[in-house]
Specification:
alpha/beta, 7-stranded mixed sheet, 46% helix
Length: 384
């Protein structure tokens, strides 16, 4: 089996046939939701003749600064699946629907997932929520932030950002493994960015505890921008790990870390799970992280990594609705787009921002020809 030759032994068991089946089902579910959004947004008529993304956006009545990225993703994704014909070269690719739009109901895929492994269903709930509101967000009648992160949605996100959700827990687990490797034997202070509801910290501290290393953590500084998430994370973590010396703070990674009480040069390890890709100015945030690290300290981020430049990643279906995901400060050499980065772009960006010894596990660059849908990895680097 090729997986055994391409994946490190410690993480190989995580990517078993059952997990791969759940990933395949979820990708198909998102594809079918995308077809439904395409239909409900009136795009079949728009794409009856060859149109660019900008032309389709104008004819459909979408708000340009909101719709440009998600609509382009929809068109490119459906072209990659053979639903649309694409002609020309970027940025002037024209898309055309050559016949009838396939009638593919998402519900049977969700039902298949429920039979196979119901722990993944929170991801289906979030994708379904996004799909319901897609046309209204693209038209500017509401915002992705309000439909996805309104106060009534926190329960859905608690289920999604959970170590009980097999499709999300993999990010926490890989990140925890990489953090265990990067944390010095003597331990030290740990800073977590964008800790959300605490599942990443839970995975890391559980691993350190299992290795007898939890006592080496002199301070675990858990930070999060959202106050409701921060409070929920604090409650669950202090109950689950009463002996860990926690500090909790609200931190905006787009502002100087000192404003959140982060001391410079103090941390042996800075980590985050699915966080840094939404930094407004990634170079600035990486600079703040470097300043927070002690000499020889490490950054570990568990991220969705784009295998090839321009490749659509199914997780983007949801997060393309969020402005922070769509519109960062761009760096042509290594940050050419919003959202996820390729292995080469992460490496170039970290090296440019004062880091060294960049490692990506699993090695997405080695995997991508065989498994082009493999997108989960831990990216680690040391302070240069």
């Amino acid at each position: 089996m090729k997986r055994a030759s391409l994946l490190p032994p410690e993480i190989l068991p995580l990517f078993n046939d059952e997990f791969v089946r759940s990933c395949d089902l979820y990708e198909e579910y998102v594809f079918r939701l995308t077809l439904d959004v395409f239909r409900r947004a009136g795009l079949p008529a728009v794409c009856a003749r060859p149109v660019t993304t900008d032309e389709a956006m104008a004819e459909a009545g979408f708000l340009p600064h909101v719709a440009a990225v998600p609509l382009d993703w929809i068109l490119r994704g459906l072209a990659a699946r053979g639903v649309l014909h694409a002609g020309g070269e970027p940025p002037n690719v024209r898309y055309r629907l050559p016949g009838d739009l396939p009638e593919l109901d998402p519900a049977p895929v969700r039902d298949a997932q429920a039979r196979h492994d119901p722990s993944a269903l929170p991801s289906y709930a979030i994708a379904g929520l996004a799909a319901t509101h897609y046309p209204t967000v693209l038209r500017g009648d509401t915002t992705g932030e309000s439909v996805l992160f309104g106060p009534e949605r926190i329960g859905a996100w608690f289920d999604y950002f959970s170590n009980d959700n097999v499709l999300y827990a993999i990010s926490n687990t890989i990140g925890a493994i990489a953090c265990d490797v990067s944390l010095p034997e003597a331990g030290g202070m740990i800073l977590e960015l964008g800790g959300g509801l605490g599942s990443g910290a839970e995975a890391l501290l559980s691993r350190l505890s299992s290795k007898g290393r939890a006592a080496s953590v002199s301070t675990y500084r858990f930070t999060e921008l959202s106050i409701p998430f921060l409070r929920r994370g604090q409650k669950s973590l202090t109950a689950g790990f009463p002996d860990v010396p926690f500090a909790f703070a609200r931190l905006d990674m787009n502002k100087p870390f000192a404003e959140a009480g982060v001391a410079p040069g103090a941390y042996a390890l800075v980590h985050g799970v699915n966080t840094l890709h939404v930094a407004t100015d990634l170079a600035f945030t990486l600079g703040e992280i470097r300043n927070a690290l002690a000499p020889g300290g490490s950054l570990v981020i568990s991220e969705c990594v784009r295998p090839f430049p321009g490749q659509t990643v199914y997780v983007e279906f949801v997060f393309n609705l969020l402005e922070a995901f769509r519109k960062p400060v761009l760096e042509p050499a290594w940050r050419p787009n919003g959202g996820f980065l390729t292995p080469e772009q992460w490496t170039a960006g970290l090296l440019a921002c004062g880091f060294c010894d960049v490692r990506i596990v699993p090695d997405i660059a080695a995997l991508r020809e065989t498994y082009p849908s493999f997108v989960v990895a831990a990216v680690s680097a040391a302070r240069a």
